[in-house]
Design a protein that fits this description.
5 helices, alpha+beta, single chain
């Protein structure tokens, strides 16, 4: 029996994926379930070769929020987590925690809340807060500034939110979904006194090895289309391009 959030997710994704070049979420799942996919592991991305510092925070489910932090960019290059499909439809919490500086990172490499103020960029989550708002403790974990990147406001509020909603729907359908977010920096501009790097773009890889499911989506960090005509299909990309980056 669908509660209010389940209904909202399904209606939202049916609307977002329909239209020119779009498919329904269920069609997308069925198409990918016939593919032979490479078995993926978080440590393919989050490892000592790629990261200046690896941060791990444990959710109440026992799964980890894993962050691959780069000292030069003052931001994470990869953020990974696993969603429990039975929790993504939980009642949303009305209150949101405050962003906080990640104290486990050496002070000279930290990003601060003030770096984003009046910068023209949003404090954009990589692990979305809406994925974890089933309890206060887990929601708090994703408000570390190590999980935040400078995102263009329209991309953060209207484009990126679509793939965030989609991952919750797929987690509900499959029962569990692993997500890794990657960030591309290329001669980046910086914001704030601590020179936080502004990404060129970012992506999501969604997978469930047991269900042989894998999909990837890429977003430029600038608006190229009207949000009203944007669909997930416009951002779908070949996962092998991300694996080989």
């Amino acid at each position: 029996m669908f509660n209010h959030l389940k209904f909202t997710l399904i209606f939202l994704l049916a609307f977002q994926l329909s239209g020119c070049g779009g498919v329904t979420a269920q069609e997308s799942y069925e198409d990918n379930n016939t593919l032979t996919t490479t078995t993926l592991n978080i440590d393919d991305f989050i490892n000592n070769n790629n990261c200046d510092q690896i941060l791990e925070k444990e959710f109440s489910t026992g799964s980890l929020l894993s962050l691959c932090y780069d000292y030069g960019y003052k931001a994470s290059k990869y953020v990974a987590y696993t969603l429990d499909g039975t929790l993504v439809d939980a009642v949303n919490l009305d209150d949101r925690p405050s962003f906080y500086t990640e104290e486990d990172i050496p002070e000279e490499y930290q990003a601060l809340y003030s770096d984003y103020t009046n910068s023209g960029y949003d404090r954009g989550h990589l692990a979305p807060d809406a994925d974890f708002d089933y309890n206060e403790e887990d929601l708090y974990l994703v408000y570390t500034l190590a999980n935040i990147i400078p995102q263009t406001p329209n991309v953060n509020r209207y484009f990126w939110t679509k793939v965030e909603a989609y991952e919750r729907l797929i987690a509900y359908q499959l029962g569990e979904l692993t997500v890794i977010n990657g960030v591309e920096f290329e001669n980046p501009d910086v914001i704030g006194n601590n020179h936080v790097a502004v990404p060129k773009g970012f992506w999501k890889m969604l997978w469930n090895n047991e269900e042989n499911f894998k999909e990837c989506y890429y977003y430029d960090n600038f608006v190229v289309d009207n949000a009203e005509v944007d669909t997930l299909a416009l951002h779908r990309t070949d996962c092998t391009l991300l694996l080989n980056e």
